[in-house]
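Need a sequence for this fold. Nothing fancy.
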């Protein structure tokens, strides 16, 4: 069934970025170093030795970027706040010059009628906190709560929505297990401790934001759900194990108030989870005004026989010796998926988005949902006259918006959709080699040029009744 892409009144059409990926100004006005500054300077960690030192220079070009958003008709902008710009040492003294940047950004958005949606943690942990142990230690969650109170007091009168964490799965498993993300540690037990302290940070942070905000902003968290397909004998067991690690390790404590028993059992040889203290689960389970969902593709898993050459298409196994799947790494393998694929090698599967939204709304019936990221990297070509025609990205977005529309038709309480990303930007381990933007950025001149996909999105928003 095909739909005219008409959405309910008030549906939020937005776009998203993250601080380290777009801001630049790495040492501007008192910003301290983050784990991504350190990691990107470590030889061999990021493609081409790229760093976020300049990125899109959004820190200095934010006003014209906001004008561009207004021209596209965006109803909301999801950005992240750089913790080391606000509290350079991670704890203690507040850098008002850093905080002021976000205050001006929020005012600039509101002046243009664009809702500010602020994420407090999109992976840029202040380096001094990593030096003190990072996410595997409890103090980092406590520091996050202090930071959240500072942000709530400064911006909680004007921000529409606060999101505590973006994709804690990546922070924990890629940062401390697989090692492909900062800080690049490959310690399976530490990855599980990081899972818990990120969950705790979410709970403490949400409570601190609520207490310190003078208005009544919505509170949320954004998770990257793995939409899993099983293959081969024992497919269900493979899916169950990865679902526990990837999805239920976060939704369990955050939304049900407990860790899944099978997760604890599957990982018992790696960790006894004794870092979970009495009372933690009650702190983690905070009412959420909206649950943020990031979706890019599906993943296929099967039980591994331990002998045949191991398949891995998950892009998370490449780093030296690390694993993103503590306790299940030697049991489950990721299977090559048929195309079409994006430039990241991720398969294109819009029906996975409909399925995910339906499953979440069945599991959490009263919980409003938001697609906080969806989008695709393709190898864009700039034509001689400077235009970027990106029909593959238009097609990807159109099909995923239709998939969201299908979920709405089936009764899902979906409030909006943010395209990842507004701008081509620093794509983590891939540096500037992968472009997700609907707006092209020339990394020599830093000039912006809306791609066809940006114009398609503008027209989609304009055409809504
Ligand atoms: C997001 O991460 C980030 O929030 C954003 O900063 C980033 O730029 C953007 O997406 C694009 O990468 O290999 O089968 O295990 C997305 C991270 C992408 C992690 C897909 C898991 C593959 C599933 N995820 N991914 S699988």
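Here you go.
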């Amino acid at each position: 069934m095909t739909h005219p892409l008409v959405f309910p009144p008030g549906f939020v059409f937005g776009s998203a970025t993250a601080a380290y990926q777009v801001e630049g100004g790495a040492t501007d006005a008192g910003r301290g170093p983050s784990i991504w500054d350190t990691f990107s300077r470590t030889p061999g960690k990021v493609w081409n030795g790229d760093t976020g030192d300049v990125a899109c220079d959004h820190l200095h070009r934010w006003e014209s970027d906001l004008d561009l958003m207004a021209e596209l008709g965006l109803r909301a902008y999801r950005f992240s706040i750089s913790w080391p710009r606000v509290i350079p040492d991670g704890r203690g003294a507040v850098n008002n010059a850093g905080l002021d940047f976000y205050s001006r950004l929020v005012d600039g958005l509101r002046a243009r009628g664009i809702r500010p949606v602020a994420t407090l943690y999109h992976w840029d942990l202040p380096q001094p906190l990593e030096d003190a142990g990072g996410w595997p230690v409890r103090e980092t969650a406590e520091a996050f709560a202090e930071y959240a109170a500072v942000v709530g007091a400064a911006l909680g009168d004007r921000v529409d929505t606060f999101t505590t964490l973006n994709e804690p799965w990546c922070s924990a498993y890629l940062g401390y297990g697989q090692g492909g993300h900062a800080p690049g540690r490959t310690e399976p037990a530490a990855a599980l401790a990081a899972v818990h302290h990120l969950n705790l940070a979410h709970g403490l942070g949400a409570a601190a934001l609520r207490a310190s905000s003078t208005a009544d902003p919505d509170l949320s968290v954004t998770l990257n759900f793995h939409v899993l397909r099983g293959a081969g004998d024992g497919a269900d067991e493979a899916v169950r194990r990865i679902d526990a690690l990837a999805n239920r390790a976060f939704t369990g404590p955050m939304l049900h108030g407990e860790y899944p028993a099978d997760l604890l059992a599957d990982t018992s040889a790696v960790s006894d989870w004794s870092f979970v203290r009495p009372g933690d689960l009650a702190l983690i389970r905070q009412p959420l005004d909206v649950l943020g969902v990031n979706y890019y593709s599906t993943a296929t898993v099967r039980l591994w026989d331990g002998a045949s050459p191991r398949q891995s298409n998950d892009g998370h196994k490449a780093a030296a010796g690390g694993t993103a799947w503590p306790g299940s790494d030697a049991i489950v393998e990721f299977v090559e998926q048929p195309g079409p694929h994006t430039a990241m090698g991720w398969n294109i599967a819009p029906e996975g988005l409909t399925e995910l939204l339906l499953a979440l709304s069945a599991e959490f019936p009263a919980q409003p949902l938001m697609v906080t990221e969806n989008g695709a990297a393709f190898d864009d070509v700039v034509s001689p006259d400077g235009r970027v025609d990106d029909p593959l990205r238009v097609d990807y977005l159109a099909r995923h918006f239709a998939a969201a529309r299908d979920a709405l038709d089936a009764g899902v309480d979906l409030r909006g959709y943010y395209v990842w990303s507004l701008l081509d930007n620093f794509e983590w381990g891939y540096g500037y080699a992968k472009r997700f933007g609907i707006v092209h950025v020339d990394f020599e001149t830093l000039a912006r040029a809306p791609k066809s996909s940006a114009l398609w999105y503008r027209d989609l928003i304009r055409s809504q009744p």
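For context: The first strand starts at residue 12 and ends at 16.
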